[in-house]
Structures are given as C-alpha cells and as structure tokens.
Amino acid sequence: MMERLKDPNRGLMSPPGGKLVISEAESPVQCAVREAFEECGMKTRALDWSLKGIVTEKDYPSVGNIMLFLMEYKNLINELPEACNEGAFHFIHPDDFKNHNIPVTDRLFLWDSMFKNEREPFILALNCKNYPDIKHINV
Fold first, then answer.
1. Sheet holding 87-89, edge to edge
2. With CB atoms counted within 10 Å of each terminal CB, which end of the chain scores lower, N or C?
3. What pTM was computed for the model?
4. Per-residue buried b or exposed e for 96-129, using 16+ beta carbons within 10 Å of the residue's own CB
5. DSSP-assigned letters across all residues of 70-110
6. Cβ distance 16 to 39 under 8 Å?
7. Residue environment code for 58-83, b if the CB has 16+ CB neighbours within 10 A, otherwise e
8. What are the tens digits of pLDDT across the range 51-99?
9. Total domains, the chain
10. Helix (H/G/I), strand (E/B), else coil: 137
C-alpha cells in the first residue's frame, strides 16, 4: 500500500495506480504494467496481472465519476519499492487493513471484495454523492 502524497486520497493508504491513457486506447492491464513501473519501479508483463474487480464511484467528491479497474499482481513481493513522488510504500497484513487510514469507500466496500478468493471479478457500483455516507447501488 502507498501512503499517498497527492489527491485523491492524500494522506491515506491506498494501492498504487493511475489513469488509463485513453488517447492510446490503453487497456487496464497495460495501465497496470505502466503504473507499476512508474510508481514502484517494477518491470512486469501483462501476464503478471489479473482483473480482480471493477468499481464505479458516482459523484466522488472533488473528482466526479470514477471507474476503477482493480488489478491483482500474481507474484509475491518481498521488498518494498522506494518512495516516489506519489508516496511511500508499506506492507499491511490483510487482517490489519481496517486499522489503517484507508479511504472510506475502500474500508466499507472494496477490501472485503478484494480478499475473497473468487474466480470471477467482482463489480461494485457506489453512489458517493453524500460522502462519507456512501450507498451501494445494486447492479
């Protein structure tokens, strides 16, 4: 996890990531490979990643509508990446996630779904209009 230095989620613990390069028709997997290198210095391949879930957040404060492609890196990491301009990295045990300063949407909805050992990706639709009172939208 990264303790973020920039918005959104500045000061909070969240996974590294970034925006798809739409002008290049970048796929979520290509984005994961690029972002892992840019933020973590990790050289990965598309085959190293799998889609874990898709989350939409309607009316997220100061951002608007967001679609997240949650990618899972299939290989174990034994060393933390060096800090970058996005933030500093920390290992957090899954049982201890909710004891850390993580975004409200992640705490309420995301990590429980991420830690399930499902074969198929999960899909969540969230309405953040009254943040931090977030509503799950049934899809």
1. 13-14, 2-4, 87-89
2. C
3. 0.91
4. ebeeeebbebbbebbeebbeeeeeeebebbbbbe
5. EEEE-S---SPPPPBTTEEE----GGGGGGS---HHIIIII
6. yes
7. eebeeeeebebbbbebeeeeeeeeee
8. 999 999 999 998 999 999 999 999 999 999 999 999 999 999 988 888 9
9. 1
10. strand
pLDDT value at residue 87:
96
Q: Range of 59's domain?
A: 2-137
Query: How far is 40 from 89, CA to CA, in rounded Å?
Result: 9
Q: What is the DSSP string of 10-23?
A: TTSEE-------GG
Amino acid at 61: P
Taken as a whole, the chain contains a residue count of: 139
Q: What is the CATH number of the domain that holds 97?
A: 3.90.79.10
* Region of residue 75 (phi > 0: left; psi between -120 and 50: alpha; otherwise: beta): beta
For residues 138 and 12, what is the distance between their CA atoms, to the nearest angstrom?
A: 27
Say if CB 115 and CB 45 are below 8 A apart.
no
